[in-house]
Amino acid sequence: MAVAAKLASACVIGALIAAAVAQPGSDKHPAAAPKAPEAPAAAGQPDMAAMMAAWEAAAKPGKMHEHLAKGAGTWEGSVKMWMDPSAPPTESKCTTVMTSVMGGRFVKGETKGNFDMGGGPAPFEGFGIYGYNNTTKQFESTWCDNLGTCMMHFTGSLSEDGKVLTWNSKFIDPMSGQETWMREVETHSGPDSMKLEMYGPSMDGKGEMKVMEINYTRVAKATAASKTDLSK
Prior knowledge:
This protein is α+β, with helices and mostly antiparallel strands and 232 residues long. The protein has helices at 2-22, 48-59, 63-69; strands spanning 73-81, 90-101, 106-116, 121-133, 138-145, 152-158, 164-172, 179-190, 193-201, 208-221. The chain folds into two domains: 1-21 and 45-59, no CATH class; 63-222, Beta Barrel (Lipocalin), CATH 2.40.128.20. A hairpin with a 5-residue loop joins strand 6 and strand 7 (164-172). It is globular, with a radius of gyration of 24 Å. Residues 1-30 have low confidence and may be disordered.
């Protein structure tokens, strides 16, 4: 609530300043009155100028957002899934459409396919939002799909060469009711090729195992109408 109140105060002050600037000049008073020095913020009150600058910096798209936006377009994927690491994987196909949204601040991903989890092919659809938080200096994403009712939250980090983006998530395992984890690794071998690998706890709980691999090829880049100007 305190943050909301501070933000509302900043917005109101900004609106008042904008309204004052927009007023036409008066013939009776051609010279503007000298600007009085700003009084220091009262004890316990936020510095409005500093607050506005901080929010502006937090909202401005940058290089990390450009990295995500490069993935906009339509991708065809070849899927392998392992329920048991000692058994051959099941294989299927999927299509993922990535779209840059909200002025380049986020990327929306929608995936559809027919995943086989051991009981035969079944329709699959999933939805994700991906972004980079300027404040925490981390990538963030949220994912949900028709295989469950949870919303998974990930944080990510990018390798120095910009080719590998690693995501980590913690969530509640429906079977045990205990916290578990998932790790995803995106590896870009070229502008239109990408491999997504997913890992989870091993069967004995002492290590990790690969549970899914999707090899993606981009078949169509974002249209001109959907491209976003990140310079604003």
